[in-house]
Amino acid sequence: MTEPRTLEVDLGARSYPIIIGGGLLGGAFDLSSHLVGSDCLVVSNETVAPLYLKSLKKNLPDRAVHSINLKDGESFKTMASVESIIDCLVSAHTNRDTTVIALGGGVVGDIAGFAAACYMRGVAFIQVPTTLLAQVDSSVGGKTGVNHPDGKNLIGAFHQPRLVLIDTDTLVTLPDRELRAGLAEVIKHGVISDAEFFEWLEVNIDALLARDADALAHAIHRSCEIKAAVVSADEQEKGNRALLNFGHTFAHAIENCLGYGEWLHGEAVAAGMVMATDLSDIEQPAGERIRDLIAAAGLPVLPPAMDAKKLRAAMEMDKKVRAKRLRFVLLKSIGEAYIGTDYSESLLNKVFQNAGL
Ligand code: NAD
Ligand code: GLY
Prior knowledge:
With 357 residues, the protein is an alpha/beta fold. The chain has 2 domains: 5-173, Rossmann fold, CATH 3.40.50.1970; 176-354, Dehydroquinate synthase-like, alpha domain (Up-down Bundle). The protein has 13 helices and 11 strands. The strands form 3 sheets. It has a 7-stranded mixed β-sheet, with helices on both faces. A two-stranded antiparallel ribbon has the order 7-8. It has a two-stranded antiparallel sheet with strand order 10-11. A hairpin with a 6-residue loop joins strand 1 and strand 2 (16-21). The chain is globular and about 60 Å long. The mean pLDDT is 96. Glycine (GLY) binds at residues 137, 141, 143, 241, 244-245. The site of nicotinamide-adenine-dinucleotide (NAD) has 30 residues, from helix 4, helix 5, helix 6 and helix 10.
């Protein structure tokens, strides 16, 4: 077994490590030493718990381990799920010195993190991400929350974990469609900030789809490095953290209009990135290369057929809106993104038309 790799999210007193490696849930990591208190609550779901809860518990021999398994899916990313976690914390008589551990994908991580942020005004939180998307993106950075029927992730809080433990072996059981969805966020990291990584992805996309362990480990490590740097510089999205939302103004509206869970988040991000590239004043062949890489990853390059007016209206709920004006993450080139309001409604209409809407 190769040594795990460690990165740091540098946030002063709230700094934390990201540990990346194989076999970490099988006992190759001392998880107990990162817990606060004598008990903890593991939040997972009905799919992931049967696969990995037992191994996780083995890593916590000296703790009282409570657990709750949520229903699986984006449509359960709701306040009701948060309440069920808090009910569990209360009925287990846990206090402020407890730790909430999220074991699962981005949905479980976002819900569990928000419950940890709310319970007793904030208790310790650990992320154990088990999807590629959660390992390269959602488990890092402390954005937690749930959906509102009128908008994605509208309810939430910044609540940093004290540890992100990435056992890359968990990807073995991940369905192919979910692996591809995770690749959308990997590609996003290359597009917004690292042209060299983007080129590496162009060369290695087939190896990633074939689950080559070294290729996946590199993609996860480089994505976490990029995200950790952005979050360390702008924890609460006062500025450049918004760049991580490339394609997401379109994506979140697609998810909301279709009904949460119909398309995977990563699929919506893929189509959203193509639309955001189209909205950018970027020279060819860069735009084509982005589209081609997304297609090569087996991801959609067009949004689903839907009412353009409804999609445009849903975009108004984007959290980047200021003074009623949409702000988009746009590209200067591959590896260089900026936040812009310099688009016209007619250009936006053209982007919709090019996307078949
Ligand atoms: P998900 O959590 O729904 O997981 C995808 C599916 O894979 C689920 O059915 C899950 O049960 C299953 N699964 C998880 N791990 C598995 C494993 N190892 N083997 C087999 N099945 C497994 O989806 P996701 O793509 O991980 O996360 C998407 C969510 O993340 C969205 O809600 C999105 O908004 C959020 N997100 C948050 C941030 C953030 O910064 N907080 C960033 C990006 C995305
Ligand atoms: N996924 C966007 C962010 O964490 O800021």
